[in-house]
């Protein structure tokens, strides 16, 4: 049976499939007396999906802020890059975006990104590449004069030995 009477105050039951959302819970006895909760005491969460992982590559030393976009990304308990755990930094209430700090990895490794949330676990194969190439995480200003000549600070990783910076197709000057 899918229902087990544990005591006069407790039963266990196996949930049936159901669309995502809140539901009331009812207990029917042999009487047949029924008690139905007046509030939604139970919530079904949909299976999570991953639509995109951006950026799709980051530093071998880890620390890259990665945005994972999808659906049903509610109360994420784990994000893995291959077998290494990332750190969830933030998420939105709609369950469509989480920001994760990537773990360290091996240069050239192309790994799946897996997310475990309330609705289950989803994996996007070959979603992230660990790179020892320069990675840009921020630019000190995003809007400048078309005349150029503004000094900017570029933040990221793997910049040692940098010989050139380009803006679009044009090299930095000075």
Please tell me about this protein's structure.
With 174 residues, this protein is mainly β. 0% of the residues lie in helices and 49% in strands. It contains no helices and 19 strands. Strands 8-15-14-10-11 form a five-stranded mixed beta sheet, with no helix packed on it. A four-stranded antiparallel beta sheet has the order 7-9-13-12, with no helix packed on it. A hairpin with a 2-residue loop joins strand 10 (78-81) and strand 11. The protein is elongated. The N and C termini lie far apart (78 Å).
Task: Write a brief caption for the model.
This protein has about 170 residues and is mainly β. Helices cover about 0% and strands about 50% of the residues.
Strand order of the largest sheet: 8-15-14-10-11
Number of strands: 19
**Could you tell me how far the N terminus lies from the C terminus, measured between alpha carbons in angstroms?**
78 Å
- Radius of gyration (CA) equals 24 Å
Strand content: over 45%
Distinct helical segment count:
0
Reading the helices and strands in chain order gives EEEEEEEEEEEEEEEEEEE
Helix content: under 10%
Mean pLDDT over all positions? 89
Backbone structural class: mainly beta
Main beta sheet strand tally, sense and closure: 5 strands, mixed
* Cα shape: elongated
Stretches where pLDDT is under 50 for at least 5 consecutive residues are none
């Amino acid at each position: 049976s899918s229902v087990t009477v544990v005591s006069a105050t407790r039963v266990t039951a196996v949930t049936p499939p159901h669309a995502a959302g809140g539901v009331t819970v009812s207990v029917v006895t042999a009487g047949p007396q029924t008690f139905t909760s007046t509030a939604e005491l139970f919530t079904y969460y949909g299976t999570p999906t991953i639509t995109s992982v951006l950026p799709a590559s980051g530093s071998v030393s880890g620390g890259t802020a990665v945005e994972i976009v999808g659906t049903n990304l509610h109360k994420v308990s784990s994000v893995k890059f291959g077998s290494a755990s990332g750190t969830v930094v933030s998420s939105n209430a709609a369950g469509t975006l989480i920001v994760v700090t990537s773990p360290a990895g091996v240069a050239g490794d192309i790994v799946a990104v897996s997310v475990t949330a309330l609705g289950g676990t989803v994996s996007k194969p070959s979603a992230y590449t660990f790179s020892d190439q320069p990675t840009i995480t921020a630019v000190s200003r995003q809007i400048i004069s078309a005349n150029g000549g503004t000094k900017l600070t570029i933040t990221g990783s793997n910049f040692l030995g940098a010989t050139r910076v380009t803006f679009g197709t044009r090299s930095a000057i000075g």
